[in-house]
Design a protein that fits this description.
The chain has about 240 residues and is mainly alpha-helical. Helix content is about 80%, strand content about 0%. It is built from nine helices and no strands.
């Protein structure tokens, strides 16, 4: 757990450094890049105007019969063809994305099954659930192992510095649709860190654990953190309360 948390802190520091570098570079390069951007805009406008003028010039020199043909037949056919091409492109892109997701899920499933390092195993488990769009389809074989790992993390990742691990474990438990973890999530509603409490409320909403309505109502009305109250409200809405 400590190793995974240290890695997360390292990522945070690296990301902050990148943001600072980008901000500094943008500030320093601002006066130099604006003229280039302005030139590009002027060129684009010039090309657009030239295209429009050329099209109008050609149109005026067409015969009336040709203009009527274009308006009545050619243009509608071209528009229909364009719509069909866009639809085909959308379908192909969706299929490719699904194939990529399935390949990624297969790789993560294999890695999760063979991984022995606790921190890497937890990291892989989080990635697996997220790549699978927070669904159970395709990961049924690993549900018991995922449940045990997330529940253990929620209970043992103690301390303020590990609140993100506890929170992620809580929210991912809600994805597994196993009501046996409800008592553990209800206990997490009392966590010292607001992030963990909000994730626990989110998980209870995902589970539609109607037996926790009264507890969630109390959280929605009494918790000092606005995000926690909002998550509790969302959970109640999912339950139809």
């Amino acid at each position: 757990m400590k190793r995974l948390q240290n890695k997360a802190n390292t990522y945070d520091r690296q990301a902050a450094g990148v943001v600072d570098a980008i901000a500094t570079a943008s500030y320093d390069a601002g006066p130099m890049t604006h003229p280039i951007s302005g030139q590009a805009n002027v060129s684009a406008i010039a090309i657009l105007l030239g295209t429009v003028i050329t099209a109008v010039w050609i149109w005026k020199r067409l015969s009336l019969d040709t203009q009527d043909y274009l308006i009545d037949q050619a243009i509608p056919i071209a528009l229909l063809a364009a719509v069909c091409l866009v639809m085909v492109w959308i379908i192909v892109r969706g299929v490719r994305r699904r194939q990529q997701r399935l390949r990624r899920r297969g790789m993560l499933l294999a890695r999760f099954a063979r991984e022995t390092d606790p921190d890497k195993r937890l990291e892989t488990a989080f990635a697996l659930v997220e790549v699978n769009n927070y669904r159970l389809e395709g990961v049924e074989s690993e549900l018991p192992a995922l449940k045990e790992l997330f529940a253990t993390t929620l209970q043992r990742a103690v301390g303020d510095k590990q609140h993100r691990l506890r929170g992620m474990a809580a929210s991912h438990l809600g994805v597994l649709q196993d009501l046996s973890v409800v008592p553990l999530l209800v206990k997490a509603l009392e966590d010292d860190h607001a992030y963990v409490r909000s994730c626990a409320a989110l998980a209870l909403g995902r589970l539609r654990a109607i037996e926790t309505k009264a507890r969630l109502v109390a959280v929605m009305e009494e918790d000092w953190d606005q995000t926690v109250r909002s998550r509790a409200k969302e959970a109640l809405e999912r339950m139809g309360a």
